[in-house]
Amino acid sequence: MTLKFQLDTLEGVDETTQAMYAEKDGKYILKIEGLPQPEDVSGLKSKVQELLDEKKAADKARKEAEDAARLEREESARKSGNVEELEKSWSEKYSRREAELNGMLEQERGTLTTQIRDLTVGRTATDIASVLAIPGSAEALLPHIERRLSVEQRDGKPVVVVLDKQGKLSASTLDELKAEFANNTAFAPLIAGSKASGGGAGGAGNGGGAALKRSEMTSVAKREFITANGQDAYLKLPK
Fold first, then answer.
1. Mean pLDDT for the chain?
2. Helix or strand run (H / E) with residue 181
3. Where is this region: Disordered (predicted)?
4. Which of 25, 172, 208, 211 fits a disulfide with 191 by CB distance 3.0 to 4.6 angstroms?
5. What angle (nearest 5°) sits at the alpha carbon of residue 215, between those of residues 236 and 185?
6. Is it the case that residue 106 has pLDDT exceeding 70?
7. Share of the chain above pLDDT 90, in %
8. What is d(CA 151, CA 102) in angstroms, rounded to the nearest whole number?
9. Does the CA dihedral 5-10-16-22 come out positive or negative?
10. pLDDT at residue 102 greater than cutoff 50
11. C-alpha–C-alpha distance, residues 184 and 196, integer Å
């Protein structure tokens, strides 16, 4: 029986299986001895936000001081009839505003680029991972697939393209990339058995998880396999 690493509720789960889960933040997490716990970075995030707020306040105070000094120079130039000083002040004001608008435009472009990537590369990678992975393992496979995808503008439209292992544009299709992951023994513990068999007669007879020995699995692969299939399934693999 395949056990999911996280459940929203234990309703419908038998009592023996329920004992294998522990409640945390409203979710039920599978109790796995030795599983590394995520590092608590809440303090670091708080400190980063504090520094950002301080920088924002300092930038605001600097801008207010600069504006006050400029207004003072303009007022002094008006009183003395110094046209050159007035032109200089207005030129500085225009240049600063132009820089602000360019910065806002670049930020909007960056946001738009991120949104386009999420809607194209992110969606495509999620679809491939969902098709290939055993239940509960798609999230572990997802970042590896995302690294092999990019998006290009072709005829004014965003198109998802496949990259090689060095991150360069390749001629591979999405189906070829899918087949590459399905037949990669490094990802066998994450791939559904019928899809990790190699696609031919040479791979028949072995499921994705059983194709590897425990001694051949990396520590990450072992952890992900146990998370998706349980400790008992891992111990049943050949040494």
1. 75
2. helix 174-182
3. 63-92
4. 208
5. 90
6. yes
7. 3
8. 25
9. positive
10. yes
11. 8
Give the Cα separation of 45 and 131 in Å (integer). 35
For residue 236, pLDDT over 70 is answered with: yes
**Percent composition of the chain: helix, strand, coil (DSSP 3-state, to 5):** 60, 10, 30
Lowest mean pLDDT among 91-95, 156-160, 227-231: 227-231
pTM to 2 decimal places: 0.39
Strands 149-154 and 21-24: unpaired
**Angle between helical axes of 138-146 and 219-229 (0-180°, round to 10):** 140
- The owner of tokens 């207004």 is 71
